[in-house]
Design goal:
The chain is built from no helices and seven strands. By secondary structure, the protein is mostly beta strands. The protein is globular and about 35 Å long. It starts with a strand and ends in a 6-residue tail after the last strand.
Length: 87
């Protein structure tokens, strides 16, 4: 299951997306995690919905954790895999 997250990202002149930070709520607190590295990115279409998948390393309490972050192109929404909540 995927849950929505806030993301700060940069978009270049040709439309390439680079997420920098994610923020979500856990235990009734907002938590911000910095994306240290993007391991890979791919674009696909699932059930007719275009999305970008980013496998990233995020900094969490002085250690790195891998997450899968999804950007849905038509709705401009960001989601993260529920079991990979980073904060």
């Amino acid at each position: 299951m995927r849950i929505p997250v806030d993301v700060i990202a940069a978009f270049n002149t040709i439309g390439k997306i680079k997420p920098s930070y994610i923020r979500l709520e856990e235990n009734h607190e907002l938590c911000t995690c910095r994306i240290e590295r993007i391991c890979y990115t791919k674009e696909d279409r699932t059930a007719g919905t275009r999305r970008m998948e980013f496998v990233c390393m995020v900094e969490r309490k002085e250690c790195l954790q891998q997450i899968r972050l999804f950007y849905y192109l038509e709705s401009n929404k960001w989601m993260i895999e529920e079991e990979e909540v980073c904060c």
